[in-house]
Amino acid sequence: MKKIIGIGNALMDIMVPVDSYNIIDEIGLPHGGMVMIDREKYDFILDKIKNIDKVYIAGGSASNTIYGLAKLDVPCSFFGKVGDDELGKAYEQDLRNAGVKPNLIVSNENATGCAIAFVTPDGERTFATYLGAAAELNESNISEIQFKGYDIIHIEGYLLFNYNLVKKVMEIAKSLNMKISLDLAAHNFVEGNREIILDLLENYVDYCFANEEESMALTGMEPFDALEMLSKHCEYTIVKLGANGSLIKHNNSVYEVDIFPADTIIDTTGAGDLYASGFIYGIINDCLPIICGEYGSLLGSKVIEVYGARIHDWTKILINKK
Predict the structure, then answer these.
(1) Helix axes 86-98, 61-71, angle to 10 degrees
(2) Which of 109, 134, 210, 277 could form a disulfide with 215 if both were Cys (CB 3.0 to 4.6 A apart)?
(3) Do 254 and 231 touch, CB atoms closer than 8 A?
(4) Contact status, residue 271 vs residue 258, Cβ threshold 8 Å
(5) Residue in 104, 99, 52 with CA at minimum distance from that of residue 78
(6) Which residues pair with 250 in a beta bridge?
(7) Are 250 and 236 in contact (CB under 8 A)?
């Protein structure tokens, strides 16, 4: 079976259920978006939520996707940077427990990064992300040897704050004839990196994942038109439409995929990441695009039934594992 490596921000998710958007507005976060914060703001938010029950779960977009693939018995590794602290150790152990080979650099300068996710009753999540040690990951940490033997690299869009890092990773991947998968970040993040993303899609990316808001931020177009524009240079292009399913374009054909209804919607964190897990699983098993999308929709529907991006009961995942 093909081997997959992911690269992204190694972050511990702090899930914070709230009954309204009031505290989100007080802190000054965009509803449903993601904002990078410094240590001062991080400490301020921690103080704000000190009396609210919280759940700690290992996360990070690319890490979530790799986790899902590993749970489907795909040989996987994750590359990132953590702090020399208890959260960093817990993060590494979580990867191992899922069957992922950790490829983590340990920082002596900064703590393990955290993503504080406010989850409102509608299942929407709003992130305030303190990168910590993850922000230290740069092009000097990257070499060809780290990616040899892998067939696909999955990269999260949140890394685009360091364009030199992402470009070097993609250049090495292309030199090794690897397929490059890119999952775009939050819509407000896409808006600030539009030209960079379009350049990478044109020159490097094979599989592009975007949700409806991200595709709009990148192209200024509605989903079908955005799909057409983004597919000009990619082998597979996917626009996720939330409750309306997803759109896929491959080899000049467009596929519309329905959702799998969730038993209950608790937290949408990781829905897109696990969709990518299912879709990539379909690709490496030579499935038709519509089946790849259905695998993605199935995983996405199961992860929104729990807090965080870790599906609790994989016995309910009816995918033919090969």
Answers:
(1) 30
(2) 210
(3) no
(4) no
(5) 104
(6) 236, 253
(7) yes
Query: What's the residue count for the chain?
Result: 322
Three-state DSSP class for 160?
A: helix
**Chain position carrying tokens 């400490």:** 43
Residue 280 carries which side chain, given as an amino acid letter?
I
- Name the 3-class secondary structure at 176: coil
Cβ-based neighbours of 289, under 8 Å, separated by 6 or more:
236, 248, 250, 253, 255, 282
* Residues contacting 321, CB < 8 A, separation 6+: 72, 73
CB of 233 closer than 8 Å to CB of 274: no
Contact 117, 14 (CB under 8 A): yes
Instruction: Compute the distance between CA of residue 189 and CA of residue 23 in angstroms, rounded to an integer.
Output: 22
CA atoms within 13 A on the CB side of 149: 5
**Comparing C-alpha atoms, which of 120, 125, 56, 58 is closest to residue 269?**
125
Angle CA(184)–CA(190)–CA(192) in degrees, nearest 5? 150
In terms of pTM, does the model score above 0.70? yes
pLDDT tens for the 322 residues of the chain, in order: 899 999 999 999 888 999 999 999 999 999 988 888 998 999 999 999 999 998 888 889 999 999 999 999 999 999 999 999 999 999 999 999 999 999 999 999 999 999 999 989 887 889 899 999 999 999 999 999 999 999 999 999 989 888 999 999 999 999 999 999 999 987 878 988 899 999 999 999 999 999 999 999 999 999 999 999 999 989 999 999 998 999 999 999 999 999 998 888 887 888 999 999 999 999 999 999 999 999 999 999 999 998 778 888 888 776 765 5
Determine how many CB atoms are found less than 10 A away from the CB of residue 253. 9
